[in-house]
Amino acid sequence: MSKRSSSTSTRGLSRREFITRGAAAAGGLAAAPYLLGGSPAWGAAGAGADVGGKLDVLNWILYIDKKSKKDFSAQTGIKLKYSDGIDDNNTFFAKYQEQFANGDHIGFDIVMPTTWMAARLIELGYVQPLPFDLMENAGNLKSELQDPVWDPTGEFTLPWQTGYTGIAYNIEVTGREITSVEDLFDPEFKGKVGWLLEMRDSLTLAMLSTGMTREEIAAGVTFNDAKPAFDRLEDAAQSGQIRRFTGNSYQQQLLSGDFALNVAWSGDVGQLSLSEPNLRFVVPEEGANGFWADVMCMVATSDRNEQVAAWCDYFYDPVNAARVAAYTNYISPLADITDELAAVDPAASENPILFPPQDVLDRLVQFPLLDPDEEERFDERYAEITGA
What we know:
By secondary structure, this protein is of the alpha/beta class. It is built from 17 helices and eleven strands. Helix 8 packs across helix 10 (223-239). The protein is globular.
């Protein structure tokens, strides 16, 4: 029997209801300030200090600064094993699927897939409800991210960071500004274009390039709707226009100049531009996929409730969340950390990637959830194209 099936379930309660009930059970009105947007003082004697034990976390590359990891361990007494080994969602799932299915522990307590993959893990019973009764800061989550479509009761996930997709380019290599999805298909850049292995990010751009509108994509996409986009990507791959489909490793190709431009995630360029100031990021005029979130999930075989709760609670403190957001250049899932972000890094609080202007927001469209049969068809077709 999996830990999920043997644990006390909160299914039927929303995340907000569960947090509120947990707070009431823990001390009634004494906890209320935290649920209204405040936070406990995370210091040497702060909430969750001296938890002890061990915690193993699997995340994406460039998703946390070294100081935050060090301070977390120092302030909680938890021995942290942290890996940035997620390169893309499908390779993550393929790597651990057999262990998940067998009920074997994968070596991590927390994993951070993107929302659509989190929905799959929830459906398959590979993750368990988060220990919200041990968290005081979960109420700092933005209201629009509570009880989301990928986790309707809100009990299995908490967003780590949110972001959007666009095109990263090295203007020294391109020789001009990039503004359109069509630039990815321009023969001028043949052999120097990268696309993501993440189907939803790449396919959204490809569908827009074939004339689909953002409104049509948001309303729902069938396999037949996407067929012209798949065909165009396949033609570009076979002709050599596309050099490679990658996960997070595209960052190195951008830095080296192997890629002139690449389908990319919003926060990465802010970090990479510190090493290569010629790198730029744009949401093309046709639009792109956003907002998406990478979310914290507790694997079904973990029994480290206190340590998992301490991790989530620590990084849902606005001061700690601000430090991570300033480093990652991704958008914090917390309701309002503007003042904390300004204190950490004044420039970050005015960064248009972290606070996109309205004209950028208007160009973003969320890739819709697919039913299992359609998702299988989409995945198989995209794997044919990418060779994954």
